[in-house]
Structure formats: C-alpha cells, structure tokens
Model the fold of this input.
Amino acid sequence: MSRALQVALGVVTAFGGFLEAGSIATSAQAGSEFGYRLLWVLALGTLCLVFLVEMSGRLAAVSHHTIAAAVRERFGFAFYLLPLVGMVLVGVLTLVAELGAICIALQFATGIAFQWWALPVTFAVWALLWAGNFDVIENGVSLLGLLTVVFIVAALREQPPLRDIAAGLVPSLAPHDGGRFWFLAVSILGATLTPYLFYFYSSGAVEEHWDERMLTTNRMVASVGMGFGAVLAAAVLVVSATVFGPRGIRLESYDQLALLLTDSLGRWGFALFVAALAIACLGAALEITLALAYMVAQGFGWSWGENLGHQEAARFTATYTVALVLAAIPVALGLDPMRVTNVAMVLNGAALPLAVMPFLVLMNDRDYVGVHANGRLANVVVLVVTVLACVLAIVSLPLELVGG
Amino acid sequence: MAIAFLGSGCGTDPPTLLRTLASWAATGAMLGRAWADGATPRAYTERTLERAQRELATQARELGTLPTAQRTQATPVTERVLRGLRDLAWAVRAHDRAAVRRLADTLGADARRLSSLDEPPS
Done:
C-alpha cells in the first residue's frame, strides 16, 4: 500500500471511528444545557488526544512495544496491576454503555425493548471479533462510521451563529448550575480521552508491524484524523444547542436524543440518527472489547493478537469473551444506557492518570523511544489535561449526586 | 459512588425540578410535532410518550418541595401536561394527526410556562 493511501485510510478510519456513545451523549447534553459554552472543553480534550494517540503510535513504531507491555516491562507486573484493574473496570463500564446504545438504536428501529437486544448484540460483537481480523475490525467498521458525517450536515443546515460558536471555543466558567457544568465538562473530557483508545492504537500499531518509517503517517493520522473526528462531536453539540436548547429540553435519555436530526433532516433524520448511533457504537464496542483483551493479555504476558488463530491466543480470546458477557448483564437487566454512559465517561476522566502517568514516563525514557522522546509541549499538555480531568471527576461526581 | 448514581433519581432542588418538568413537557411537544410530520415511527413515539409520562409523574411528586408561590402555579400546569401527554398518546394511537398537532402546541405552551416559573420576576 502506498504511503499516501496509508495516510488517507488512517485518517478516514480515525475520523469514522471517532464518535461513540460517550461523545454523542455528552456533547448533546452539553449543547442542550449550556449552548456552545462547552466547546472549548472538547477542543482541549482533542488537543490532548492528538498528543496521546501520536505518542502511542510513536512508542509502538520505535520500541515495537505496546503501552501495556512497555509499562509492565519498565515498572514491573505489581505496578502494572493498579492501572490494569482501574482501566479494566472503567473499560467494562464503557463497554456496557456502548452495547446499551446499540441496543437502544435497535429499540428505536424495531420497537422491541432494548433489554431484549442485549444478548443478540453481544453475540454479534463477539462473532465479529471471532471471525474477523484486525483490518476488518479497524477499517471496516470505521469506514461505515463515516455515516456519522450526517451530524455535520445537520449542523450546517441549522445555520448556527458562527460568532457564538467562536465564543464557545474560548474557555469560560459556568453561566449557571456550576456543578452540572463541570460534570458535563469532565464527561466530555472522559469521552474524548478514553484510555482504551490509545492502548488500542498502540496494540494495533504492533499488530500491523509499524516501524520508524510510519512516524509521519502516525503524526498525520493522530492530528488530522482525530482533529476532524472532533468536528463530528462538535457538530453533535452544535445541533443539540440549536434544536434542544431553545425548547428547554434537557437530555436525560436516548429517547429524547433520537429527535436530534428530525428538525434539520426531516423524515430521514430519525433513521439516520439511529443508523449512525448503532454503527458508531458498534465500532467502539469492538475496539473496547479488543482493548480490554490487549491490556490483560499483554499485562500477563500471554500470547495475544486479533490476527492470531484462536488456539494460539486462547487466553486472549477468552478474555474478550468474558468481558463481553460481563458487559451484557447490566444491559439485559435494563440499566439506563444514558446514565451508564454519563458515569462511565466521568470515571474515564478519573482513571486517566492511571493510564497516562506511566505512559508519560515511558515517552521520556530514551531506552524506549531513543531520539523520539517527547518534547516539552506534549508533556505539559498531556499532564495538565490529565490532572484537570481527574480533579474535575473527583469533585464533580459527588456534586452531581448531591446537587442533582 | 457509580452504583449510587445509577440507582438514584435526579435531584429535586426547585430550579432543577421546574426545568425537568418543562423539559419533559417540551419533549412531548417536539415528539408530537415530529410524529405528525411523519418524522418518527409510531412505536418509538408511543414508547417515548410513555417514558415522558412516567418521568413527569415521578417529578410531580416532588412539587411539594417547591416554595408556595411556585408550587401554586406549577401544580395545575403540571397536571395539565400530564393529561396532555396521555391525550397525545391516545391521539397517536388513533392516527389523529390534527389532534396530535393541537395537543403538541398546548404542551409547548405549558413547557414555556413551567420554564418561566424558574426565571426571576422582571
């Protein structure tokens, strides 16, 4: 494959795979309650994500280590257990949110309650992982995810005031409901910076045998792909601000969110929303499930890889099977997917230091990345946003509980 | 903490309560118009209207926590919204698009009334 095609495919898959339950729900909630005022949080999170994704690809290309394997090697297994446990717990909760959102989309499409879809959807995700290889999982579903471009179309049709959007990109404090404002801010950060994403990315880079020749491609995919991807999340926020905000609708459930595109796209709006939600969350569910298996298998030093045979990587396969079964249970029991999504995203923010701090040490260790060690800007941005997300998560979740 | 949040209802401080009531009323109005325009399927519309009624009924139980002046104004509007949502569900079931449009307009007006109760008097 030519370098240009590689870059294009990488950018397109990063773009198509950007949205998932967390980013759709939190962006829409932020837009409906605070207009464009939380756009700057999305921009800040995306900047940090670009650095983190670029770093994870660079680590893989230069050291041929995944993040998990390198952390384990550098700090020892006992140390790695702490981030592993934290990330697995948050990862499974995030997987519940994604499966729940797929099931909700199917409920909208068929009228059959979402709980009944828990097992068929879980089986379908498992079957795709079982039968597919890494390219199918990463490229196939992400290409389908290009359907999420409907959110940009809808945002353009709504003709939002550009001056207000520009003002929303400037950091500001809460105009009202401070607790809720910061809760949504950290939800957006958690949704943008889900730890599974960069652990998955580094594992994918190793699966695809990246070397230093891939560094430019990696930089392009991280910056352009993730940057354009964030435009999708911003579009969801903008459409929500123009559709729900003026009507005074606070989004508490996906039932309300399903009306997002009916204003701008009419009869097609509902169907396109349902399809975009289902496809985006299917892609995310596949990636999270694989990321969980990667983190566990690499941490324990097992044989791993989506491109290996099932017998060669039996414990890897067993891990993603168990993760899917665990995640299906709350969905089958009828736990509200929107609530699960909110909690999962805030906990993603809280867990961020566990995932990022050891990674940051590695990216400054010349034994691993040689002359490709981090610059000061990358270190500062990632450190500041990680600490900010963690502090906000720890403060805002109790505030949300107490203050409603 | 996560489990506590997942199991809890929304908070009930007066501004949040009024906004939540207004939000579900506005949801009913938007949903009714969307269905009348053929933009949403019937099963989804009926299920969401049921959800709106349930949420509104749950929140309506908290009306007693409002200050007297707000409670006096919010209670009849909330009762009207609850009836409106029920009638809307019937009209959808009966495929009566004209009635759905009329009820949606009334719900929209009541949603604005509930919202205005949260605003400081001018």
The interface with chain A takes residues 1-2, 4-6, 8, 10-13, 15-16, 19-20, 22-23, 26-27, 29-31, 34, 37-41, 43-44, 47-48, 51-52, 55, 108, 111-112, 115 of chain B (CB under 8 Å). Residues 1-11 of chain B have pLDDT under 50 and may be disordered. Chain B has one domain: 14-116.
